[in-house]
Amino acid sequence: MVKVLLFARLQEEAGTDSLTVPQSDMSVAELKQWLEKEYGLTSLSNTMTAINENYTDDSALLSEGDTVALIPPVSGG
């Protein structure tokens, strides 16, 4: 399993601050596609991604027990 931490508008879309994904044999890009399909998350295209507190890109592969943080762009002033 993989734990996914959601921030800002992703939390609002999902109605929670974290999700558990039953499978780990996928890339970050595949995870984002799965979350869009399963949870209707539409704000994933520009998110920064960290796996186990290390920033990464969409080609990174997930492993069993990983924690993935999806962080949308922040704006304001």
Automatic annotation (TrEMBL):
One CC-aspect GO term: molybdopterin adenylyltransferase complex
CDD domains recorded: Ubl_MoaD
GO molecular function: nucleotide binding
Membrane listed as a keyword: no
Pathway(s) the chain acts in: Cofactor biosynthesis; molybdopterin biosynthesis
Domain of life: Bacteria
SUPFAM superfamilies assigned to the protein according to its UniProt record, in alphabetical order: MoaD/ThiS
Gene Ontology biological process terms in this record: Mo-molybdopterin cofactor biosynthetic process
A Pfam family of this chain: ThiS
Alphabetical keyword list: Molybdenum cofactor biosynthesis, Nucleotide-binding
Gene3D superfamilies, alphabetized: 3.10.20.30
Subunit and partners: Heterotetramer of 2 MoaD subunits and 2 MoaE subunits. Forms a stable heterotetrameric complex of 2 MoaD and 2 MoeB during adenylation of MoaD by MoeB. During catalysis MoaD shuttles between the two heterotetrameric complexes.
Homology family: Belongs to the MoaD family.
Function: Involved in sulfur transfer in the conversion of molybdopterin precursor Z to molybdopterin.
Entries under PANTHER family matching the protein: MOLYBDOPTERIN SYNTHASE SULFUR CARRIER SUBUNIT (PTHR33359:SF1)
The protein, known as: Molybdopterin synthase sulfur carrier subunit
Organism of origin: Alteribacillus iranensis
Lineage, uppermost ranks: Bacteria, Bacillati, Bacillota, Bacilli, Bacillales
